[in-house]
Fold each of these.
Amino acid sequence: MGQRPQDADARRAVPPVICYPNETLPAVDIPLYLAALEGATLVSSHLAAPRDATHFHVKAGQFFRISCVDGPQVGDLNLWNVHDLSERFYSGKTRALHGTHVSEGERLWSSFPYLRPMATIVQDSLAWYGMDAFGGSVHDVIGTRCDPYTGMLLSGDTYHYCCHSNITRALADATGMSLHEAEPHVHDVLNVFMCTGFTRDTGQYFMKASPVRAGDTLVMLAEIDLLGVLSACPGGDCSSEHSSDVAQCYPLQVDVLEPAAGALDGWQSPAPNAYDRTHGR
């Protein structure tokens, strides 16, 4: 361990600076979105069975609503540009722009070189939760997804119904790709309804029992044409463990909703990032 310098306290007392001040991000017209949502009609419904995943398509300008329909359950969400799977949800940049957890008025951003909003959170029935005394909050963009490789690494177990594998199977079903072709497209997730944070002493990622209950929803506007996959995590409410058949698990539902004609007048699907990609040459 390094020797403590005489000015250690002064060094630690330096105040932090926000890396990406987000006041200049494109404005979100939440009143417009909410008004459009009010009169939106159901297009399709998709059920993610416990320890499995479902896939769905959402056109730009449609809403999708993720619902807890039975008991407390968290889900792992992947999003892609349906026309180009290389444009996908970028959890790291979303975290850098908005913070470790996201809620109403915040956006899910896409990968480089596109870096544009893929979806905007319009309604969150768990927005009341905020940040608890442990540093936990809901809908995180810090966890990666439960996967069979980490399970094998830590315990030597083979488990096929973790979120990574669930998403892989659902993406293969949605696209006609083989599992081996689909898997490289699976990416870090939005942990829907999951309550997580970092421990104060060791900085370790933690989970705790989700506050989600039957009837809770997370509603987003698709900013571009999307292919989505949602996995109902094998951890249930993630109060004790994940990637097992022990936890009580429940389904999650995704509803796609179409706003009435003219309800989003003035809204435009965002263009890809304007950077010219010359990289200094």
Amino acid sequence: MAEPPNDADERRAVPPVICYPTETLPSPNMVIYDAARAQLMTTTRAVVPPREAATVVVPAGHFMRIHSVEGPQVGDLNLFNASNLAERFYSGKTRALHGTHVSTGDRLWSCFPYLRPMATVTHDTLDWYGIDAYGGSVHDVIGTRCDPYTGRLLSGEDYHHCCHSNLTRALAAHTGQELSDAEQHVHDVLNVFMCTGFTRDTGQYFMKASPVRPGDYFEVFAEIDLLAVLSACPGGDCSAEHSSDAAACYPLEMEVLRPADGTLADWAPPLVNQYDQSHGT
């Protein structure tokens, strides 16, 4: 370790500055969403089996709920523009704008060059959890997803039911693409129900037992037509390990709900980002 300078304490004491102040970020009109969600009709249900993934299409102006149905289970979520796989969820920018974990009122943003809200979180039965004494919280946009490549790197073994592989198989089945083509679209996830943070001493990403229980759900409003792909993580509640068959795992359920006619009269889908893409040329 390098010898600290004489002014080391002074340098450490410099106050932080928020990278992306959000005061000018257009806020979602939660009043409209709350009114719309008062009368909802289920249109689609999809069960996500343990250590597998499933897909649903969520039309713009509809809601999607991810339900815990049998036992504590976390899920890795990919979102796409249903008609353009190139527009996909951007976890890094969502994290930069809203923080390491998302809940009611936060938005899930799409990648460049689109950069617009794909979905808005409208209800979260785990919003009571907050941030615990370890710095842990729920629904993170930190972790990338468990994958066979890192598993091979760390253990020397192949495991095929990690979330990356589950998402790849489900997307390939939905689109009719070859696995190798579908895999190119699988991206960093929203870890629904997962309780995570960073250790204070080493700064390492940690997971701990999720507080989710049957009956809990995470709800989003689709700002554009969405294809949702959800993996029921092989880590179960992620209290011990993942990328193996050791943990107790349970199914998840995705439910698509349509609001009553006329309840979204004052809502419109967001435009793609208006930057001209000239990049200074």
Amino acid sequence: MKYRYTKFTGDLLDGLDFEDLVSKLSDLLLSSGFGNPRGGEDDTDKTMQALHDAILDALFNGGVLPQDTIDQLLGDPADGDQDETRSKLEQLIDQIIQKMGDDGYITMPPDLEAERKRRGQAGEGEPEQPVTFEVTNKALDFLGYRALRDLLGSVGHSSEGRHDTHEQSTGVETTGAPKPYEFGDTINLDASSTLLNAVRREAREVAAGRAPGRSGAIHVTHEDLMVVQGEYQSSCATVLMLDCSHSMILYGEDRFTPAKRVALALAQLIKVQYPGDALKVVLFHDSAEEIPLAELGRVRVGPHYTNTREGLRLARRILDRQRKDMRQIIMITDGKPSALTQPDGRIYRNAFGLDPFVVSETLAEVAACRKSNIMINTFMLARDYDLIAFVRKVAEICKGKAYFTTPYTLGQYVLMDYMDKKTKTIH
């Protein structure tokens, strides 16, 4: 009996950074309807063919496969066996899709092979229905984690350094040398410095003959007290207001998908590092509604106007129920206020935006937020002159900030602004 040995090449999946691949697919998994100019709720960008094409692009252009694995996959061009190369590539993509389903990142269709056969046997006049997939909560949670890690890394904070820091149980982190206690200071005593002061004071009193020598007990007085200077982690309630009007995917740029990615990263930051904080999400368009955070990754834009006042009004009602040290609204938008909900429930619309009636009512709601001690920080994804003037007026009324940014830098601004306001120096 003869045996023939061939070189073991291993499984092509072995050379694949699977988590990096899923991260590269985030634009597809968090799709906001950019591929559908008319808006609406269809899932034309959540088809298995779209997933196939996105994986193919990530494999060859995303850097998730080592070069030697790519060479192994493509083989020797001199062989000219393109059918075998294509078959190996399709097999790898099918394995990746299957693994994404097995690992819980997507919900697979019931039977892909049966669906392929059904489509191949479909009658000539029968419309072909695309096979779609669903993104799972695990995938959205993972994409939020990766977005947070990438954003913190880009601003100089490693994810390990930020997330592994353990605050004291009081929420105060030591940052400076101890100081003598003064009236009004937080009683965050430095025990060693206080006892050392007491020992020194008693030694001076004994040497001066003002007190008899003592042994054993140390008597601490008010003047001996030393307190730690540190940073207090305040509790915060935040409403993230996202503009999902149709302009967020117009003019050749998808602004809503980066906004969703930032929201998921902010949710991860709060869950991991600031678990005592609260985060709610409000979408505003013709009107406004609160959505569960778990549904954010599945939200799509639509052919809507921009009812900024209704979004602010809903956000204020949500924050009025919160009892936190700080309450704030983070508003991400690219459009001018162009709609208003009237007392009878009808929607007043002006497609040109900055209608004096709409603007005045919106600024009145901003003033109501200021009266409730709610800060509004606006992150603007457009540079229209009149819009800039409106946003600056909002910041002036509520003593908040206005950031004029792009979809590429939005995450850095939002996360750093949030973390900067979380701490204050105390004594």
